[in-house]
Amino acid sequence: MLTSLLPWYDRGLGWLRGFGHVVDLAIRYEVAQAFFRSGLVKIRNWDGTMYLFQNEYRVPLLPPELAAWMGTFGELVFPPLLVLGLAARFSALSLSFVNLVAVVSFWHVLHDNEAALASHLYWGLLLLVTLCHGPGKLSLDTLIRQKLAR
Q: pTM for the whole thing?
């Protein structure tokens, strides 16, 4: 009886593996859009961004102006790379750093705001999936790797 179920099991596993590549892309998109939107808000209101970095965010070791530029750069450059799956692990690592700096810099507010802190944890876990698992088959990294292998 179990032997007759093995082909069905194998077929189901094949479908799940194929769907996993779509899930990888969806994960990359989900986290990238959150960071990219944040970067757009910063760049559209640079005076407000500078005010926040000078008065609200407590970025360690960096002057507020440099921290604002670096944070905005990270939020605008790495999300598109992540979605495309181009240097995906590097992009995920870079955004993980941006996420960690955001939590540290705004901890005085986040530690009392469970929803906001949960969002950062959620993004961190999504980025960890790409860091550990890679971008999956629906990525430019995979396409480039395949081209170079030929």
A: 0.90
